[in-house]
Amino acid sequence: MDQSSTSALLQGAVRDLATGVASALASGGHDPVGGDTTVTVGTGSHTLAAVRVLGADLLLPHVLFGTPVDPDTAALFRKAVDAYPPRADAAPTVVWSHWAMARTLRRLDPGPLAGESGAEPDAGWLHDAPWQVLTHQLAVLAPLALPDEDHAVARAARRRPVDVARGFVRAVRRRDWVQAAGAGRWLTLLDGVPDTLGLEAGLVFTELMGGGDPRVALQVGAARRVRAGALV
Amino acid sequence: MPSIEETLEEVTEIQNAEIEAVLNPLECDGVFRDSRRCAALALQCGTGQTLLSPPTPRPKKA
Amino acid sequence: MTDPRLVHTVGVRAMEWLWDHRDGFRLEPDVDPEVGFLERFKPIGELASICRVLFREGVAGSRQAELARRLLDHAWRETLDGGRMLVRGQRTEPVSPIPFEVYLPFKELGYSQPEVERAALLNHRLDSWNFLEVRPTRLLGLSAFQRRFGLTPRTPEAEALNATWLAHTPEPWTADGHIGYDITHAVFHLTDWGEHPDGLPEHIADYLATWLPVWIDDWLDLRRWDLLGELLVVDACLPRPTLDQRAWEGFAAAQQPDGAMPAVGAIPEGEPDAVFDIVYHPTLVAAFASVLGTSRALTELAHSPA
After folding, report:
1. C49, C174, C197, C261: which is deepest, by most CB within 10 A?
2. Model-level pTM?
3. Is the CB of residue C185 less than 8 Å away from at least one CB of chain B?
4. B28 close contact with C: CB closer than 8 A
5. Which residues of B touch C224 (CB under 8 A)?
């Protein structure tokens, strides 16, 4: 199998999903999200894999606005959770990403979950991480950045707001807009962020510079919504 | 010749590995960065300051 | 904890290079008028300011202190012809602040040139000299130099500061290379080149403590050694210097065996004179950063619990 073309296909499928979610966030949930996934992205394993990669954020508009999830999307989401459990040696971000999906499922579509205990994974790898690594990892786990969360990753972020702010600045300077947007989303939720950061303008800047990438648009849109306290 | 089940398993395994790689990305090199003018500035080591200012032209040899 | 010896060694080697290449600090008496006679004074002023720092900090070690003294004597006696070149500079371009700026560190070290001093007093009275259009950080520097000379600054330092970028503690994610140098120069002038770190207003010190680690990370990543060196000076001026270990190790690793510090990336190749012009500045900066950093590192050690 040609790995590079598969990877490009997977990334493309993820972007398509992200576009839909970003639109739904921007429109305030008035349009259904996810209904087009099977049509837009195509059939087969790329769709499912893309759902797994986008993770909990696929259903973010429903979490934020309380709109119902259509049954097909819910089924696809559940299927992705079941089909791609973290492997034995999976990295912490993989484990947490899966945990976030499972938890989203429990919230929105309670049902029997194969082998899911709900227990939090370990977040020790963040404790002594240098601020550069901390921010990078938090950005990868942006789907976990929601108001009023009390899991170990959120606690790790809350303990180090200045470090996350530094990581945001660094990401912007490196033109890593996806990381900047994810970091920015966390920052909107944290206390103790330095005033001099200029976060709001920084998010607008990130969107201006990187918004062509739907993942950036999604995270910036999420940051706006979670700041507005749209969590239902 | 592998069975269909084995092939599908291999496909899923490859996909899971790929997904996990995407979900655990290494950081890219900074893409940036400053314009050529800023790069030239780096060689000038600051502008317009009397001290810690651009290197001055080399005296001509007699 | 960053090894103070690593920090110290950068300065030792930089000073050896500066001494070996002292003839590079050369004026051009028969210069093309387009270029201007005063252009080549600036490196000499920088050399004098930094050697003054070496004395002041008192940790240079006998070899470094000796080299600093010898460099200063050489610059004053040979390059400036006992200060007469400054007089000539003043007479060539009477309204230029450069002779004044170069003279001040020498004066503070005990050298004297009466005609330059009289010109300084006159220029202090001139509205024209004092309202020359210069960049905000330079104006801040000129006001600070007037104070150090014993004159009341015509533009109060607080007013000059307020026109600078740094005074407004702007969005840190906008800081590019130009802004980087504006930051460092403002700090140099606020602290009298590290002599008075408490010259940093509290809100600026807090701002720098927060964001300096990011800029240091940035310029280290980009191998911009000259700007990184200036930021390491700024770090040493903070109430609680970090002496960023990764940055100092990278900085030290970039230094050449002969003590030269490249400006960006690798050491340039070419005619020795051309290389000097590119390299003297980051090497001076390396000596500066090393002296201040070593001083702070030793203070930290002295104050840490046994």
Report:
1. C261
2. 0.91
3. yes
4. no
5. 42
* Each residue's pLDDT tens digit, A58-73: 999 999 998 889 899 9
Q: How far is A180 from chain C (nearest CA, A)?
A: 10
Question: What is the reported pLDDT for A45?
Answer: 60
In chain A, which residues have their Cβ closer than 8 Å to the Cβ of B33? 173-175
**CB neighbour class for C8 (10 Å; exposed up to 12, middle 13-18, buried from 19):** buried
Q: Which of C46, C218, C277 sits opposite B51 (nearest CB)?
A: C46
Give the Å distances, CA to CA, from C169 to A166, B34, C57, C193, C200.
15, 21, 29, 20, 13
Q: Tokens for C93?
A: 């371009």
In angstroms, the Cα distances linking C139 to C61, C90, C142, C160 are: 34, 19, 5, 6
pLDDT for residue C65: 82
Type of residue numbered B29: D
- Three-state SS for C168-230 is HCCCHHHCCHHHHHHHHHHHHHHCCCCCCHHHCCHHHHHHHHHHHHHHHHHHHHCCCHHHHHH
pLDDT per position as a tens digit, C224-254: 999 999 999 999 999 999 999 999 999 999 9
Residue C20, token pair as written in the block = 């070996």
**Which one is the CATH code of C4-299: 1.50.10, 1.10.890, 1.10.10, 1.20.120?**
1.50.10
Cβ neighbors of C77 (< 8 A, separation 6 or more) are none
Q: Where are the alpha helices (H) located in chain A, listed in sequence order?
A: 3-26, 37-41, 45-54, 60-65, 71-83, 92-108, 124-127, 131-140, 152-159, 161-173, 177-187, 199-210, 214-227
Torsion of Cα atoms, C289 then C273 then C135 then C14, to 10° = 10
ipTM score? 0.94
Q: Smallest CA–CA separation between A117 and chain C, in Å?
A: 40
Mean pLDDT of C14-39: 86
The count of CB pairs under 8 A between chains A and B is 66
Q: Where are the domains of chain C?
A: 4-299
Q: Is B59 on the interface with C (CB under 8 A)?
A: yes
| A118 to A186, B19, C89: CA distances (angstroms) | 23, 22, 78
> Which 3-32 residues of chain B touch chain A by CB within 8 A?
11-12, 14-20, 22-25, 27-28, 30-32
What does the alpha-carbon distance between residue A73 and residue A63 come to, in Å, rounded to a whole number?
14
* Phi, psi dihedral angles at A200 (to 5 degrees): -60, -45
Distance (Å) of CA A171 to CA A57, C5, C225, C242: 21, 33, 21, 21
